[in-house]
Design brief:
Layout: H1 7-34, H2 53-63, H3 73-92, E1 97-114, E2 117-135, E3 144-150, H4 160-179, E4 188-193, H5 201-209, E5 216-224, E6 228-236, H6 260-268, H7 278-281, H8 291-297, E7 303-310, H9 329-346, H10 353-363, E8 370-375, E9 379-384, H11 385-409, H12 416-451, H13 457-460, H14 462-482, H15 500-540
Length: 543
């Protein structure tokens, strides 16, 4: 005689089936976003007033024909090609637009802290190509927007992603600016620097020696730690003490009265790719970009750091080639950058170094962080730190109030304290599930490391990571649910008009709610703590 499934078994199978369906849907959505399936790259014969990925790819193809390391002929050839393209734009420009092109050789020295160690540098004869595009009636005191990318590449790497794609995007942006009929209301400085891989020497040379450095009112650094995909963007506003940090995937982190760059990005990005949590992750990464020079070490300039992330396994290797660039990625980057450049140059808050210093002295130091995140690159949610503290406190308040509400809703037949104890039990079980969901994939990785000759095969094949780690993570997440019955409820089922299963589901739901409420409240407190820490650092002159 066939055994009948209990109602709990049926409920369990329905739950697992629901999770499987959700997993498939989310995987498809994530794959679509990461691989830019929703973006159509424009061809080489696209309208002249549009950014074209195909035209940018042509530049990448030229730049990657030779090695572009310092001391190699390929680096000077790349500089000559970039200058030639800019000079051609200058010849085609209308009389109402002004283009200045310079090849500069930078020398200098500086100290810096890198990975916890003090390092001193002295350098000479590094090449930068600098262009300024402005209206014909430019005043030298006008504040400008700087966009930077480096054309040198790591040793042994063709550098298609890092950073041939960046330079190519900038050349195409310069072309669109000149040939679209748009006259920038404020000057745009294109800095093609030839020494980023050598501890940001090119950008340092510009910020310490170039005659245009004090006019820069905002900077955009274009980088790549992969070959494609969503961009990780760190946006930083540093007024007076250089601490008002904003992070964007294109990710914005802090906002407030002085955080206009984050607002500009939120309002202008065509494909917003941002999350404020990136600011907390970025310092853990053992690396640096030119963004540091502009926003922290020299200039205190409101800045963005836009970085390709997908395809990190090609980063700084011989596999960083033209064919690894993902279709749609450069198009998305170009459309975003063009829109952001227009927004910055039209902003009334764009100020030169002297204006920023004068305003900071008059108004004093202000620090406001912001919370922001995009939803599948469809739209960006953005709110200030003050609003965040209130919003992030509401869930934890609901968690503590709900036991009392249930007590009164059920005609006081349930003890509010017993309900709260069950909620806490659900919270602890959910927390245990999350921890196990993290630990199980780590254990699997360690076992693979010891017993397999392909320990990191999943790194180069993301679908393997999904197949390997998501199922074992799901097992860890479900283990606390399977042992739930071993721990009795605090509520007396005999006097309540609800089944034990319904009470258990209620406790698990509100426990999970409480867990994430604690996380959001903790993040709200982190915002306050970070502000206090930044103000202390600012006043002590640490920055």
């Amino acid at each position: 005689m066939a055994s009948r499934l209990s109602s709990r078994d049926v409920s369990g199978f329905k739950f697992i089936f629901f999770l499987a369906i959700m997993y498939v849907i989310i995987s498809l959505l994530v794959h679509s976003v990461l691989h830019m399936k929703f973006i159509t790259p424009l061809s080489i014969d696209a309208p002249l007033d549009r950014f074209s990925e195909a035209r940018a790819i042509h530049h990448v193809a030229v730049l990657t024909t030779d090695d572009r390391q310092e001391g190699r002929p390929g680096l000077r050839k790349a500089a000559a090609y970039i200058k030639e393209q800019l000079e051609m734009l200058k010849e085609r420009a209308e009389s109402n637009i002004r283009i200045e092109v310079e090849e500069t050789t930078v020398n200098g020295s500086f100290n810096m802290i890198f990975l916890g160690h003090g390092i001193s540098f002295a350098y000479r004869d590094h090449i930068n190509i600098v262009a300024r595009i402005s209206s014909a009636d430019l005043q030298e005191t006008d504040p400008s927007v700087l966009i930077n990318g480096h054309f040198d590449s790591p040793l042994g790497s063709p550098g298609a992603g890092d950073c041939g794609s960046c330079v190519a995007s900038m050349l195409e942006l310069a072309r669109v600016t000149v040939e679209s009929g748009w006259i920038p209301p404020r000057p745009i400085i294109f800095l093609f620097n030839g020494a980023e891989e050598l501890f940001m020497l090119g950008s340092h040379g510009f910020m310490t020696t170039h005659k245009w450095r004090d006019s820069v009112g905002a900077s955009i650094n274009v980088e790549a730690s992969g070959t494609a995909g969503p961009e990780f963007c760190v946006m930083v506003l540093l007024l007076y003490a250089n601490v008002n940090t904003v992070v964007l995937t294109d990710l914005v982190c802090q906002s407030g009265p002085g955080s206009w760059p984050s607002q500009v990005y939120a309002e202008s990005a065509v494909y917003p790719m941002a999350h404020s949590a990136a600011q907390d992750i970025f310092p853990v990464i053992p690396g640096d970009t030119d963004y540091r020079i502009f926003s922290q070490d020299h200039g205190n300039i409101p800045s963005l750091d836009i970085i390709f992330l997908l395809g990190g396994y090609y980063y700084h290797t011989s596999y960083d080639t033209l064919d690894k660039l993902l279709p749609g990625s450069i198009q998305a980057r170009g459309d975003n950058l063009l829109s952001i450049l227009k927004a910055f140059t039209n902003s009334s808050k764009l100020q030169s170094a002297r204006e920023r210093e004068s305003k900071a002295t008059t108004n004093g130091y202000k620090d406001e962080r912001a919370v922001f995140f995009d939803y599948l690159s469809w739209f960006l949610i953005f709110y200030s730190r003050r609003v965040a503290v209130v919003l992030h406190s509401i869930p934890i308040a609901i968690f503590f109030v709900m036991p009392f509400l249930l007590h009164f809703w059920d005609s006081r037949s349930r003890s509010c304290f017993a309900i709260f104890y069950d909620f806490v039990k659900g919270l602890l079980f959910h927390a245990a599930g999350i921890i196990l969901a993290i630990i199980f994939p780590i254990i699997l990785s360690i076992l693979q490391l010891f017993f397999s000759s392909y320990a990191l095969s999943w790194f180069a094949h993301p679908y393997l990571a999904f197949l390997m780690f998501i199922p074992c993570s799901l097992v860890g997440l479900l283990i606390p649910r399977t042992v739930w019955g071993c721990f009795p409820l605090s509520q007396d089922v005999s006097v309540i008009k609800k089944s034990e299963e319904a009470l258990a589901e209620e406790a698990r739901f509100w426990g999970a709610f409480g867990f994430y409420a604690c996380l959001t409240s903790g993040f709200g407190l982190l915002l306050i703590g970070s502000k206090a820490q930044l103000v202390v650092l600012a006043n002590s002159g640490t920055f």
